[in-house]
Design a protein that fits this description.
five-stranded antiparallel sheet; Phosphorylase Kinase, domain 1; 415 residues; 2 domains; alpha+beta
Length: 415
């Protein structure tokens, strides 16, 4: 673990000086810098050559991002301290991902563990996927891209695709207890008890109290939490939602793996699916008429189906061609593994959906809906689907069962 002795929060001028040190700008370039928000945990600066700020048609190194970890969560303040070592974890995860899928992650120019920073390519020519989905955009290559990202990064960081002793050393390298604690509390604990971290609208307070009393649900969450705590199956991104993906119609870039750690594969895949379903619930408002809403939800559900089917196909090919564990080639084992993985995916997707409605941090897909009644219906739809997915996860054997559950949830909630 890196313990910095020279750490200080960067200023705009600091970011410019760092940008000059990486040899991507001309020595006499007139550099400008702006701070851009990325959430709750970091300082993020965009540095660009004067005159290039509008030139977003390519990924020129005339614009770069300087990202620095803060020693606390901005959403709470200095009373919630966080380790700076997560910057090392993020940068090393990015480098690992780039070794497998370089086209799907931003290029890294510089890492400085003392300052807890990473310098990487700017993606101004992309949009945050969450924003694009809220606007009703469709991304025909996304399912293929994200399935490729997850299949390769998960397989080749697991005991299936790498030497088991080397994998154990990787587990140590990516031990991330502080950020895992955030996940463990906000996703697997707080929503199911009267926690001060919960953030639930008064209109759906009845749903929160139902969550506290639902012992059948609690059992399933406890089993999923047990896997999150104990199963070092593969190196996860750890926070793979549509706010961590930059996208265009032809390109996908996965960013922000600071929550990376070794855990159950289904957590990453479930996170992607959950965020598509949360957006589908939010289309209660963002699509103005019923036919458009049905069509866009159908697109999102087809994307969910395609992500799983493409992931499964790619993962099986990697297994057949690159397996390093002799015993895992036993007839029937691959099918059982994939079946259990799908069940994990569905359970974690449900947990993610529940958390984003009643927990500390919501999603703009639903939280920014200005009509209170429509927002309430979207929230109840998301909770209905999320709870159902958690409860059925150990019985699911097909992604089509999941799609049917979601379709029923979209139709069955009335406010």
């Amino acid at each position: 673990m890196i313990k910095s002795t020279s750490y200080r929060p960067l200023s705009l001028e600091d970011a410019i000086q760092i940008a000059r040190s990486i040899n991507v700008f001309a020595a006499d370039a007139n550099l400008q810098c702006e701070e851009i928000g990325d959430g709750n945990l970091n300082l993020v600066f965009r540095v660009y050559e004067s005159g290039s700020e509008q030139a977003t048609s390519d990924q020129s190194p005339q614009r770069i991002i300087v990202k620095q970890a803060l020693p606390y969560a901005k959403v709470v303040g200095e009373s919630w301290p966080l380790t700076l070592d997560r910057a090392r974890i993020e940068s090393e995860a990015l480098l690992f991902q780039a070794s497998l899928v370089p086209q799907l992650v931003p290029k890294v120019f510089k890492i400085d563990n003392e300052l807890a920073l990473t310098v990487m390519e700017d993606l101004s020519d992309h949009v945050i996927m969450r924003k694009g989905l809220i606007e009703g955009k469709q991304y025909p290559l996304f399912a293929e891209h994200i399935a490729e990202f997850m299949a390769r990064t998960l397989f080749f960081s697991s005991d299936l695709g790498m030497n088991q002793q080397e994998k154990k050393r990787r587990v140590e390298q990516f031990t991330n207890p502080e950020l895992c604690k955030i996940t463990e509390d906000l996703i697997f604990d707080d929503p199911y008890t009267d926690s001060p971290n919960n953030n639930c609208d008064a209109a759906i307070r009845d749903e929160l109290t139902k969550l506290w009393d639902d012992k059948v649900l609690h059992l399933e969450v406890a089993l999923l939490r047990e896997k999150f705590l104990t199963q070092t199956q593969a190196l996860l991104h750890g926070d793979l939602h549509t706010g961590s993906i930059f996208i265009t119609e032809t390109s996908t870039k996965v960013i922000d793996p600071e929550f990376a750690y070794y855990g159950p594969m289904g957590f990453d895949i479930g996170a992607v699916i959950a965020n598509l379903l949360l957006n589908a619930a939010g289309q209660q408002y963002w699509c103005g008429d019923e036919q458009t809403r049905q069509d866009y939800r159908r697109y999102l559900l087809n994307t969910v189906r395609d992500i799983w089917n493409r992931f499964e196909a790619k993962f099986r090919v990697l297994w057949d061609e690159h397996l390093v564990d002799r015993l895992a080639a036993t007839d029937g084992y691959q099918d059982m593994y994939i079946d259990r993985l799908l069940q994990d995916v569905i359970g974690y997707a449900g947990c993610k959906m529940i958390r984003r409605i009643v927990g500390l941090a919501h999603v703009a897909d639903i939280d920014s809906i200005p009509d209170p009644q429509v927002k309430e219906r979207a929230q109840r739809i998301a909770l209905t689907i999320g709870k159902k997915l958690v409860k059925i996860n150990r019985r699911v054997h097909s992604i089509d069962e999941v799609i049917a559950t979601c379709e029923y949830g979209f139709k069955g909630v009335h406010v």
